Amino acid sequence: MSETSKEAKGGEEQKRGIPLYADWSEPEINDPALIQDTTVWRGSNELSFKLLRCLEAIRDISKIMEGLAKLEDPISDKRLVKQLASPLYTLGSGILDMFNELESNAKSYALIASPQHKEIINRKKQFIIDVPTDKTSALRLVRDKIDSHIDKIAVIRPEDFWIYVDMPSFLQWLKSCLEQILYLLSLNGYGWTRDSGHPDVWSLMSVDGKVLDFYMENGEPSHIIGVTSVKSPKHGVLSEIKAFVALYNEVASKCQGIKLIEISESDESESEQET
Predict the structure, then answer these.
(1) Are 84 and 264 in contact (CB under 8 A)?
(2) Predicted model pTM
(3) Which residue from 222, 179, 184, 180 is spatially nearest to 200, judged by alpha carbons?
(4) Residue 109 phi/psi, 5° resolution?
(5) Other CB atoms closer than 10 Å to residue 100's CB: what's the count?
(6) 197 backbone φψ class: left, alpha, beta (φ>0; ψ -120 to 50)
(7) 3 state DSSP class of 100
(8) In 45-137, which residue ranges form alpha helices assigned H by DSSP?
(9) Which of 54, 157, 192, 267 sits CB 3.0–4.6 Å from 94 for a disulfide?
C-alpha cells in the first residue's frame, strides 16, 4: 500500500473515531438575572455579543411593557412610558453596532454573501432614519434628561422634555428595532459556546447547528473529541423575541393607530435555520 493510501486510510479512521451526537432540546440563552444551569448558551464572537446586548435590552423593555399591558390606556401613564427610553435607546444603539460590525469587519463573516452585505448597508442607512439615536433625537433627550437620571434643566423647564414622552413614537421605534433584529438574526456568522461539564473540554459552535468539543491542553485546543448536532441558540433568541412580540401587540392593540407585529413563517425559518 502506498504512503498516500495509508495516509488517506488513517484520515478516514480518525474521522470515524470522532463520536457524533444529537441534542434537540430547546436552547436556553444566558440571562444574568436568573439562576440557570451552567450549560446555557453564551456568545463567543463579537456579533453574538452585540446580539445579546440587544436581547438584554429587550428583556428590560419586557418588564416595563408588562406593567403597561395591565393598563386600560397605556398612553396615560407617562412616568411608566418614559422608563422605556433607556432600554429602547440601548436596543437601537445595539442594532446599529451590529450593522457596523458586519459592515466594518465583513471579512470575519465569510458565510454572509455579497448581496447580503449590500442589504446590510442599505438597512443600516434606513434604520438611522427610522430610529434616530443621535444626541439631538427625541429618544436620546428623554433618556438623558428625565429617564437615566433627572437633569437640572428638566426640573427648570420640564415641558422641553416631557413633550417627547410619546407612546406611539416609542412603539414605532420599537417595531422598527424588532424588524431589524429578525433580519440580523437570519444571518450566518454568530459564534456560541456553553459549559461542557468537563474542565478540559471546550464546546464551540462556529457553524449553526454543529457543536465541536475540543480537548484542551495548556489552555489551547488540542483536538476534536466529539461533534453534536443541536438546535441553534438563535432558536432560543427567537423564542424570547416571539414572547416579547406577543407582549408588544397586547400593548399596541390598546393604542389607536399602532400596527401590530407579525412574525412570518419565513422570518422563523430563516432565523432558526441550521446547517
Answers:
(1) no
(2) 0.88
(3) 222
(4) -125, 70
(5) 13
(6) left
(7) helix
(8) 46-69, 78-81, 85-104, 114-130
(9) 54
Report DSSP letters for 6-66, one per residue. Answer: HHHHHHHHHHHTS-EEEE-SPP-B--TTS---TTSBEE-SHHHHHHHHHHHHHHHHHHHHH
> What is the amino acid identity at position 221?
P
Q: Is 169 helix (H, G, I), strand (E, B) or coil?
A: helix
CA 123 to chain centre: 17
CA separation for the pair 95, 54 (Å, rounded): 7
User: If 0-12 CB within 10 Å is exposed, 13-18 middle and 19+ buried, where does residue 124 land?
Assistant: middle
User: For residue 80, what is its C-alpha cell?
Assistant: 411608566
Task: For residues 211 and 205, give the distance between their C-alpha atoms in angstroms, rounded to a whole number.
Answer: 5
**Tens of each residue's pLDDT in the chain, 275 residues:** 444 443 444 444 444 578 888 989 999 999 999 999 988 999 999 999 999 999 999 999 999 999 999 999 999 999 999 999 999 999 999 999 999 999 999 888 988 888 899 999 999 999 999 999 999 999 999 999 999 999 999 999 999 999 999 999 999 999 999 999 999 999 999 999 999 888 889 899 988 999 999 988 887 888 888 899 999 999 999 999 999 999 999 999 999 989 999 987 656 655 555 44
User: Could you tell me if 140 and 89 are in contact, meaning their C-beta atoms sit under 8 angstroms apart?
Assistant: yes
Rounded Cα distance between 272 and 101, Å, is: 21
Contact of 109 with 102, CB cutoff 8 Å: yes
In the structure grid, which three cell numbers stand for residue 25, read together? Answer: 432540546
Residue 212, pLDDT score: 93
d(CA 163, CA 23): 52
